[in-house]
Amino acid sequence: MLSRILPATVILSMTLTVSLLGAEETSLISGVSVFKDEWIESATKSIVDGPGNDAKALRIELATKPKDEWQAQTWTRALAGGVETGDTVVITFQARSIEPATGHIKVTLGLAEAPYTPVVSKKLVLTSEWQTYEVKQVVSKGVAVESMRFGFTFGDQAQTFEIADLAVVNQSK
User: Fold this and answer.
1) Less crowded by CB within 10 Å, the N or C end of the chain?
2) Structural domains of the chain sorted by starting position, each given as residue range(s) with its CATH number in brackets
């Protein structure tokens, strides 16, 4: 999947073919780190069968809608490189909504500390069928790898959705 957009620097690549690592650690990222939850009490994560043969997916179930959208998010700081102003970042993944038939998520790459400014951000509507989603944006402000995080915000509604085959690539490197 990534060879079609070389030369590029892979910032994050997620393969969900590993066993569960603990309560807050359900998916291995680049063999190094995991997605962590923030602000959510009514959400659970699990590894389930994904699209294709032997594929796995991260399932997120949010039982109740929080007061604010940002109060339901999962993120990682396991990134392999920073970004500079003007870099083109491509985020691809497969996803589907389990319940309701359409899900709502926001994909964000940005600062990991206050003011949590996103440099790439897009809201997406998920369907009930597996689809490949691509977010391609020019970075609005450079961020060093030690100050950056990637994640999904999903507090628009109570929902269950699945994500697989995630890659975050800086096409400018």
Assistant:
1) N
2) 2-170 (2.60.120.260)
